[in-house]
Specification:
With 338 residues, the protein is α/β, with parallel strands linked by helices. It has eleven helices and 14 strands. Bound molecules: phosphoenolpyruvate and manganese (II) ion. The site of phosphoenolpyruvate has 9 residues, from loops.
Length: 338
């Protein structure tokens, strides 16, 4: 349920409403929509009487949230969620660009990439230290050594670090090094992991599962938000469709405006995993931003053909610089900047 306060409601009236709701065991979240305070109610508590609440001083209306996802919904929080990660603001008019290798492979590879993507205008550095690979025989990541290298790259460039965590047991370790915990597509419905990152209160990049519906994704976000961790970015990274002959996945462009409408959380486009092919990364990045994404995550490697993972979809430094220029034009056309 949400409670919409009168535009002239006093702070004391808002406090009274919040106190009445919390006294029944519920949690509240305040946001402002066109000058009106909206009290979002979530969690579990004793039955609330909409009639009584509707007649409290300062209350304009009450409304049930009919969607399954509550905290993730626009009804619960009508204003866009905007938050800081280090010196980067996520969700405002400036786009966030997360760039870097699929996997951290070596000190040289990571530092060289970190400097190059920073030079091209990226705002955060990505790199997998724990890698979810389809084959157990493929490179699994440098693990803690990879995390140390990421921290070194942050030290050298000032770029916040985005890196994946694959199991609840590793959340505490990865959180020591990471600025953003990435939940991979394969783990989007690993509820123990979602609960663990929710409890950690660090920003999260939540990737859509490869056959997850929009509602599945928002329900996964709901797990994280239910712990009071509101710093969640939703990532469209392509879904599996019947046609995987030419591309690895299909970028679901619909997901971008849909998620922006249904939810207040920032949306990030991943054109690298969505296509799996280097030459399609730039056009799909442009499409994602044109559709309203708040940023993108792009794989970049000093020598993509030698990459230990996802080389086919990784851009060279030159290609990434070109992409940034082109996406910059699109950003301007949709009243944003890069
Ligand atoms: C990745 O970011 O390298 C990755 C494994 O992504 P996804 O979970 O989207 O496949
Ligand atoms: Mn990858």
């Amino acid at each position: 349920m949400i409670i919409i306060m009168h535009p002239e409601a006093s702070p004391a009236q808002i406090d009274n409403v919040v106190a009445a709701v919390e006294a029944k065991g519920w949690q509240t979240h305040l946001s402002v929509d066109h000058g009106q305070t909206v009290v979002g109610i979530a969690g579990q508590g004793q039955r609330l009487d909409p009639f009584l609440l509707g007649h409290m001083p300062g209350v304009l209306d009450t409304m049930a949230i009919t969607r399954k996802f509550k905290r993730a919904s626009r009804t619960f929080c009508p204003e866009d969620t905007i938050f800081e990660i280090g010196n980067v603001t996520v969700g405002d008019s400036r786009l966030v660009t997360i760039a870097g290798p699929c996997s951290v492979e070596s000190r040289e590879q990571l530092l060289e990439t970190a400097h190059a993507v920073k030079e091209a205008g990226a705002s955060m550095l990505r790199g997998g230290a724990f890698k979810p690979r389809t084959s157990p025989y493929s490179f699994q990541g440098l693990r803690e050594k990879g995390l140390e290298l990421l921290a070194e790259a942050r030290e050298a460039t000032g770029l916040p670090i985005v890196t994946e965590v694959m199991s609840p047991q590793k959340v505490a370790l990865v959180a020591i090094y990471a600025d953003v915990l990435q939940i991979g597509a394969r783990n989007m419905q690993n509820y123990d992991l979602l609960n663990a990152v929710g409890e950690m209160h660090k920003p999260v990049l939540l990737k859509r599962g490869m056959s997850a519906t929009i509602e599945d994704l928002l329900m996964a976000a709901e797990y994280i938000l239910s712990h009071g961790n509101n710093r969640v970015m939703l990532c469209e990274r392509g879904i599996r469709t019947f046609d995987n002959r030419y591309t690895r996945n299909s970028f679901d462009i619909n997901a971008v405006p849909l998620l922006k409408e249904l939810s207040h959380l920032p949306v990030i486009a991943d054109p690298s995993h969505a296509t799996g092919i280097r030459r399609y990364v730039e056009p799909i990045a442009m499409a994602g931003i044109a559709a309203g994404a708040d940023g993108m995550i792009v794989e970049v490697h000093p020598n993509p053909d030698q990459a230990t993972s996802d080389g086919e979809q990784s851009l060279t430094f030159e290609q990434f610089t070109h992409l940034m220029e082109r996406v910059g034009h699109i950003a301007q056309a949709v009243d944003r900047s890069i």
